[in-house]
Specification:
This protein is mainly α. It has a single domain, classed as Four Helix Bundle (Hemerythrin (Met), subunit A), CATH 1.20.120. Helix content is about 80%, strand content about 0%. It is built from 6 helices and no strands. α1 packs antiparallel against α2 and α2 packs antiparallel against α5. The longest helix is centred in the first third of the chain and has 28 residues. It is globular.
């Protein structure tokens, strides 16, 4: 088994998850800012590992398997922690559930398609959805320390999360429709 630099970055993203979660439990502004920094580093490794794999032709089967798992784990962990601490609250919890549900459903669909040796590419809108989702999570992580200075920051994060959820439904549906032709009866 070959461990490539892109795979190392993916593994780093997975290792950062318990660090981010622990920071949420520590509480306080410094821990929250540090959790935000950890999340941003994880988001950047998501972009950079794919870029590095393409330009250096250093993809690996392990990296191809772990990359989407790492992406889903960091997003789901952040959303769960934001719901747990009350930053995501009321009806906005539905947006978080939509995003987490889509991640789980598409993982199963991708596994099925991989067994059928079918690769479905991420669409441009899927990449935009990921960016909006990451921005929404970043804003929401920053809400508690920024709230006294920027009272509408919660609204900004909430609107961004709902936008990400809407794009999640659209891209999830598109992915499902594109995959149906490869499914057996």
């Amino acid at each position: 088994m070959r461990i490539t630099w892109p795979t190392v970055l993916t593994l780093l993203r997975i290792v950062l998850i318990p660090v981010m979660v622990a920071l949420f439990y520590l509480g306080g502004d410094l821990a929250r800012w540090t959790a935000l920094a950890v999340f941003i580093i994880a988001a950047l490794t998501d972009w950079f590992d794919g870029y590095l794999a393409r330009v250096t032709n250093a993809s690996s089967k392990l990296g191809e398997m772990l990359d989407p798992i790492a992406d889903k784990l960091i997003v789901c962990a952040a959303l769960v922690m934001l719901v747990k601490d009350g930053t995501i609250h009321d009806y906005t919890v539905i947006a978080a559930i939509v995003i987490v549900s889509r991640e789980i459903l598409l993982s199963g669909l991708r596994e099925y398609l991989a067994a059928a040796q079918v690769k479905v590419r991420v669409s441009r809108i899927g990449k935009i959805k990921t960016a909006v989702q990451m921005i929404a999570i970043c804003v929401l992580i920053a809400v508690p320390p920024l709230l006294p200075h920027w009272p509408t920051i919660d609204d900004v994060g909430t609107i961004a999360l709902w936008l990400a959820a809407a794009m999640t439904v659209y891209t999830g549906w598109s992915y499902l429709v594109a995959s149906l032709k490869h499914m057996e009866d």
